Amino acid sequence: MTRIAVVSPEFPVPDEPHRGQPIYMTILGLTSCPGIELEVFCPTATYPALLNHRFNRAWIQALKDHSPPGVRAHYFGYPALPAISRPTNGYMSAYTLLPRLRAFRPDLILAYWLYPEGFGAVTAGKYLGVPVVVGARGTDLRWIQDRVSRYFVRKTLRQADAVLTVSEELRRCAIELGAEPSHAHSILNGCDSSVFHYRDRDEARACMGLDKASKLILYVGRLVAAKGLLELILAMGDLVRQDPAFHLYCIGDGEFSAPMTAKANELQVMEHIHFLGNQLPRDVAAWMCSADVFCLPSHTEGCPNVIIESMSCGTPVVATHVGGIPELVDRESGITVPPYQSEPLPSALRLACSQDWNRVQISQRLQRGWGKVAQETLAVCQAVLSADPRRS
Fold first, then answer.
1. Which of 81, 212, 286, 379 is most buried, with most CB under 10 Å away?
2. Contact 48, 15 (CB under 8 A)
3. Are strands 246-251 and 215-220 parallel, antiparallel or unpaired?
4. What is residue 53's predicted lDDT score, i.e. its pLDDT?
């Protein structure tokens, strides 16, 4: 029996059931592997109640008895102050992790999110004499906002026994920051094919009660500026002026919905912008099957799951040429454009909506379930355990 302790601050909670979904799905796959005993530890920086921050002691206390279906998870906080405690957050994370890990007695620690929690896991692993595999999701590796965090990210990458990334581009980034090339592995995200699979577009639209003649552009994700949503609204202004059949449907929520609405009203296209809020996965899949094109104009990405899900539904993609997106989207499945630019986006969307795509072929391009992701992750963990001199 191999005991694996998973450490990550990104994991589902009641008010955010899709939080850390790729990590959760990978962990579910690992729990089904024979000979694996696994528990999840979720350290989170918690702030004084006076700061009126969401991540406070009361929030953590409410999660004391919570575990997502299929896994045993432990949520706990470590004290922090915005910006001020950044240099010590990794050590505080390790301090709160240590007694819990010591009680679980893992053979290996698998940590997702490089700093501070990944550093905390590496520090705790060294103290316990347990090998540590760290996984980078994208933002934690490509969007390091200060020198202190960069220093500790580098230290985490150098000290980990193996590094996992969700794209080859991120793997190269990890190596540039100090990861040993032979210890760095790229493992693409997966997709639940029982939910996200091909359906005829006209049939899907009929079930949704959607106009068969409309040109439907779909966005799924957090409504934040870094997803390139201002550029997308500007592109809609261009598209609608030439053809009023264009409509944009946005699934998700976030603080950028107000600026999006303001810009849409300014461009007089608000009646062509539809905010759907958060949706269940089966409903997201129905929208993907109904769409003419899925659009993700992000400024930065790792390996966006929504692209894999959209393509699994047979929907072509227009996305920016950033992160691992070029590893997912080819000429037969979509179009990539430069980030931060609204000028090329309407042309790409117009072309994608008029092109005769082979949607069945697109749906077959990325046949990759979460079980495969779990197997590849476990293979790296087992290789680390086999090479660990402490076990012999």
1. 286
2. no
3. parallel
4. 66
